[in-house]
Amino acid sequence: MASALETAWLYLINNFSDFQLASLGSFIIHESVFFLSGIPYLMMEKWGMTKYKIQGKMNTPAAQEKCILRLLLYHTCVNLPLMVVSYPAFKYMGFRSTLPFPSWKTVLFQIVSYFILEDFIFYWGHRVLHTKWLYKHVHSVHHEYATPFGLTSEYAHPAEILFLGFATIFGPAITGPHLITLWLWMSVRVLETVEAHCGYDFPWSLSRFLPIYGGADFHDYHHRLLFTKSGNYASTFTYMDWIFGTDKGYRKLKALKCEDAKKVE
Description:
The protein is an all-alpha fold. The chain has one domain. Helix content is 65%, strand content 0%. The mean pLDDT is 93. This is Fatty acid hydroxylase domain-containing protein. Belongs to the sterol desaturase family. Its main location: membrane. One of its GO terms (cellular component) is endoplasmic reticulum membrane.
C-alpha cells in the first residue's frame, strides 16, 4: 500500500509536468519555507524581544517593510526566471520526479555534498564581493542591514542573487537529483541562511552543538563591521574562514568575551 507521501507525489507527477514542478513548484516551496521561517524573527523584532538578541538595536518598521517589498520584487523577477532557465541543465544531467523515491542514504549523501560544495563556492564568491568596487556597486545592498533579521538573508542586489545563487544550484545541476532531493536541499538551505541572519543566538542554536557550524552569531559579526574588516565569509560552516584566517577578528572577540565572563564569575 502506497504511503501518503507517495500518493500525494503521484497526484503531483500525474497532473503537472517536470518543468512545472521543477520551476513553479520549486518557487512555491522556496517562498513558503522562506517566509514561514523568516516572519517569526521579524515579529520578534516588532515585539521588541531582546532576550538572546545579538545586537541591542532593532530595525525600524520602514526598514522591515522595504526589505519585504524588495524581496517580493527580486524573487519574482530574478529567482523565478532563474529556476525556469536552469531546468534544461537539470534535465540534461538526469533530473527526475518519478517514483520510486531515492533511498534516504542517497538523499542524505547528496544534500551533505551540496552543503560542502555550496559553502566552498560561496566563500570565494563572497570574498570577491567584498573587494572595493564590487562591494560599493553590488554587495553593499545586502549590507544595508547592519542588524540583520531572518528575511534579510535574501535581500541583495539582483547581480548578487545570480552570482551567489550559482553556489546553491551548482551541486544539484551537476548531479541531476530526484525532485524530492532538490526540494529538501532547497528547504534546508533556506532554513540555514534565515537562521544565520536571524539576529538571535538561542541556547538551542545549532552552532552551540556543532562546532564547525557558523550560525547567527558567526554571521552577525560579519554584518556589523566595515566591509574591509568583516571576515566570516562562509555561508554555513566555519572551517574555510579558519583555514584562510578570515575569522581572526571574530575569534579574538569571542576569546575576550570568554575572559570577561570568567572575571565576572
